[in-house]
Amino acid sequence: MAFANYNDWVTFTQEGRTPAVRAPILDSWKRSRQSGLSPHMYPIKKTCPVIAPSDEFSGQINNLLNFLLKLVDNTTRLGIIVCGNAGEIIDIPTTEPTIAELLDSLGLRKGVILSEESAGTNAVSLAMMHKGAIICYGAEHYLHKLHSLGGVAVPVYDIDGAPKGFIALYCVLPEMNVKILKSLLVLLIYFFDQQTRLQRSKALHDQLKQQITCIFKDDQKAMLMVTPDGYLRQINPAAIKLLEITEKQRDEKSPDSLAAFTPPIREIARCAIPCRDIALEIRLSRKRLQIMCERLPLFSDRDEFLGSLLVFHEQTVKHSSKEIPKARFNFADILGNSPLLKHAKELALKAAETSVNVFLHGPSGTGKEMFAHSIHNASDRKEYPFVAINCAAIPREIAESEFFGYAPGAFTGARKDGNIGRLEAADKGTIFLDEIGDMPIELQAKLLRLLESRTITRIGDSRERPINIRIIAASNRNIPDLVETGKFREDLYYRLNVISVSLPPLSDCREDIPVLAESFIRHFNEIMGKKVPGIKDEIMEHFKSYSWPGNIRELKNAIEFAVMLNSGADAIAWKDLPGKLRADLLYREISAPPGDPFGQERREIQNSEKALYEKAVVLSHNNLSKAAKYLKISRSTLYRKLKIFEIPY
Q1: Residue of 240, 205, 206 lying closest to 223 (CA atoms)
Q2: Is residue 649 in some structural domain?
Q3: What is the CATH number of the domain that holds 550?
Q4: What DSSP assignment string belongs to 463-520?
Q5: Which of 32, 264, 463, 564 is deepest in the core (most CB within 10 A)?
């Protein structure tokens, strides 16, 4: 809805009728009238003694002002007003004299209270009511004297999430787009919040540096110092001995070229969160080492993430031998009782009782790999291999040899005894193809042939080898759309999509958030040796109303970060949360989890659509090409709709 105009204001204040304006504005107008305020009142009468802000708060405001001046043109007339928790103006730190004079002429001075009871509808009073960034434009101000201004205000919180006051930006209309003003203020507040967090994190970083200095002197432990990209900066003698590094290898910059690490060193090094117990496997030429790795992040004096110190503990030697890869999770590990998640678990459990192929659909971070592990472990294949492949992570040029293996001497650089492919390694078990939408189209044809013939042929070999595997595929991409554009084979999709399981986003399972968060806290307490008891109730309420675009993975990462920052014995507080999440939660209004206001209408439309497809199938006598022509859609779209509505054909 557009901003209210002068006619709307007149309709309400003089004619006593209700205009069609934004709900926050109309509600505030009504409260202002009920409090007995005159819309023509001038000046604002309620004032209070000015209490000077703390030196810390003043310093942060000055940083905000300096940051703002870099973003706007020197000629822009922009006023800043800083208010306390009661809406009282405690500072107007603007450097532009004409806007300062204008604000003063309108009665906006130090000591004036901008609460709704005192000044009616304005940006500060709206931010006080709704606890988020909000605009008040021109005639939306209840007081006529303020109609020449466009304003936006937002609450400010300290490191512990306690309110410190409000900051408002004002411009003279129509000199500046007030929507740009709102974006600018939100950017400023993120900057403000970042400054408060950096002050706290600097002390933590200093402690880590002292800890690292002590540890690196210990030559009994193998240590690598690596950059955030996983490149080697320093290696101590104990690590040289452990990894059996030769003189020729000492100039190598990549740890992964010295030995085969699982997970790769690059994955471990890119995270700036300390972690004590990372399970690491190191494969050398004649043996395999099981290592517990400790990660200590390194920071500069300006708090730039420089990389990590990796310290190796508790090594166990295992000589090379074949080991069956196992699935790690069961359905009992999938926490939550929301209806959508329970339905997905029930369907996946039924799929596990068969040997048909399964397709897991869902946004990134919803737990598709955990479902794949659970299906395998609940099936009669659980004693056989479970092999997981991320199709998006394998370079295109080596993808075929990774999937299908190769014969001895198949190409330059091939091992003399050949190599078994990952598909063949899963014989009698389950192969999990994650991000299958990124599989090269030429490999899709070979995978389809495998499904049809139940045989596999290595590169450079003519012999067909029988293979018995069950495929669980997953993707966060819309595969039918890829089929439409020719990027995914339609026949392969329908061979894989025998049973389709849709995993819901976390925003549709909000009631599961507390149990998930508690489970993650227990998990990271154990890893980091802490005793964090839980999360403050206020933060949990924000958690339950947040959209979680990264789904369960985002929640898990947030809890990991919070447990790491926490002292170890206190409930997770605002100061422990990751910066962007903290700002997103604090600087917006808490609202109840949104329902679906069109649920009934949506169901009626779906029922009508289902009836339409059923009729087309009947009229065409199950000739789907003809049915698609009746409906004026492609055959792949028709197949997809029949699957969605479970219409037999």
Answers
A1: 240
A2: no
A3: 1.10.8.60
A4: --EE---EEEEEESS-HHHHHHTTSS-HHHHHHH-SEEEEPPPGGG-GGGHHHHHHHH
A5: 32
Tell me what percent of the chain is helix, strand and coil, each rounded to the nearest 5: 45, 20, 35
What's the rounded Cα separation, in Å, for the pair 584 and 194?
Answer: 12
Reported as half-sphere exposure (CB side, CA atoms, 13 A), residue 500 has a value of: 18
Examine the fold and report which residue of 467, 502, 537 is the final residue of a domain before the chain moves on: 502
Q: Are 189 and 587 in contact (CB under 8 A)?
A: yes
The total number of structural domains in the chain stands at 5
* Judgement on whether residues 36 and 174 belong to the same structural domain of the protein: yes
Which of these three, 487, 502, 517, is where a domain ends? 502
Strand ranges, E, within 108-148: 134-137
- Give the chain's end-to-end CA distance (angstroms, integer): 47
Nearest CA among 124, 62, 125, 136 for reference residue 94: 62
Spatial distance between the Cα atoms of 349 and 343, rounded to a whole number of angstroms: 10
The packing angle between helices 55-71 and 178-216, to 10°, is: 120
* Same-domain check for residues 64 and 14: yes
Strand partners, 169: 80, 152
285 three-state secondary structure = coil
User: Rounded to an integer, what distance in angstroms lies between the CA atom of residue 590 and that of residue 131?
Assistant: 8
Q: Which amino acid is at 562?
A: A
266-285 pLDDT tens trace? 878 877 777 777 888 888 77
Residue type, 136: C
Q: Which residues, in sequence order, are CB contacts of 142 under 8 Å at separation 6+? A: 13, 28, 29, 32, 37, 39, 119, 120, 121, 122
Enclosing H/E stretch for 283: strand 275-283
| 284 in a structural domain | yes
What are 111's two structure tokens?
């000591």
Between 53-67, 105-119, 121-135, the lowest mean confidence (pLDDT) is in: 53-67
> What is the C-alpha separation between 555 and 572, in angstroms, rounded?
13
CATH number of the CATH domain containing 157: 3.30.450.40
Residue 68: domain span: 6-198
pTM value surpassing 0.85: no
Round the average pLDDT of the chain to a whole number and report it: 83
Angstrom distance (rounded) from CA 563 to CA 571: 9
Half-sphere exposure of 21 (CA within 13 A, CB side): 26
Contact between 106 and 119 (Cβ < 8 Å): no
Domain of 251, CATH number, reads: 3.30.450.20
> How far, in Å, are 24, 82, 112 from residue 55 at the CA level?
35, 14, 21
